[in-house]
Amino acid sequence: MRFRNSTGLDSARLEALFLSHVRGWPHDDLAVYVRPGRGAPFSGVCDYRSRTIRVNVGGAVRYPYWLATGVGRACTVGDLWWRPVYKLEIADGYRLALFVFLHEFYHWLVRLARRNTRQKEARCDRFAVRALVDQHGARLVDSRGRVPLREDWDFQDLDGFVAAARSRGRRGVRNLRANAACGTGISPAVRPLEGARPSAATGAGSARQLEFGFCPATGTEGFSERPTVPAASIRRPARTGARGQHRA
Fold first, then answer.
1. In 3D, which of 48, 54, 52 has the Cα closest to residue 180?
2. How does 69-90 read in b/e, with b if 16+ C-beta sit within 10 Å?
3. Which ranges of 137-201 does DSSP label H, i.e. alpha helix?
């Protein structure tokens, strides 16, 4: 893995941290760049074509930082699709960079395993959250500050889903490069839109929208999906970018 860090974090420590979490997974052909953020607390990009992961960490983030994730089980309330918000306590910039890296790395594994790359944000969050909870003692809490049951968020076989990535190696990476333009459409995201409100506009040409809010029926905060919001009004906190690229 080619690694470059231009933040104030110690490069040797950060590289060792990243590598400790990807042993056993293909990563030799990846380039990883950690850079200062330009305003947002964090962001990340996985570019399949150039085999590059870019991690951006904001310099003004105050720790501990509570990061809203989309790891909760989805449920349906009437005509709404709903996912409760679980917040992860991030102790420092190293753990924040690690979360973003692992999230984007799982996107890479999904691609390498030749799985459908769309709508994998929750899986990628679970991959990152699992590592921080199990190996770094990070706290995960619900909207009321309670620790959720493990089975309420860690209920998928994440390793099994991308097991094919282990055996593809360099040959699989070459094939990915040749077909990097395939299957890279925009996918819904589970990053919070805090304070967002449903649009009043409805009618033809509607699309589905994820919004952050409070659900009276369940008494929880979460991400809801409304099928009656015109496509023109959609706000996307994360998206895929150019062809062959995922953004978060």
1. 48
2. bbbbeeeeeeebbbbbbbbbbb
3. 158-161, 164-178
Is residue 166 helix, strand or coil?
A: helix
The residues that bridge with 226 in the sheet, in sequence order, are 209
CA angle at 130 for the pair 127 and 131, rounded to the nearest 5°:
90
User: How many angstroms separate the first and last alpha carbons of the chain?
Assistant: 21
Stronger pLDDT, 57 or 119, i.e. the higher one: 57
Pairing mode of beta strands 140-141, 75-77: unpaired
Question: Rounded distance, CA 169 to CA 69, Å?
Answer: 30
Residue span of the structural domain in which 112 resides: 2-247
Total number of domains constituting the chain: 1
Residues in the chain, how many? 248
Mode of pairing for the β-strands spanning 245-247 and 220-230: unpaired
Tokens of 105: 């790395």
3-state secondary structure of 141: strand
Contact criterion met (CB below 8 Å) for 47 and 54: yes
Q: List, for residues 217-227, the tens digit of each pLDDT value.
A: 444 444 444 43
In the predicted model, is pLDDT for residue 39 greater than 70? Answer: yes
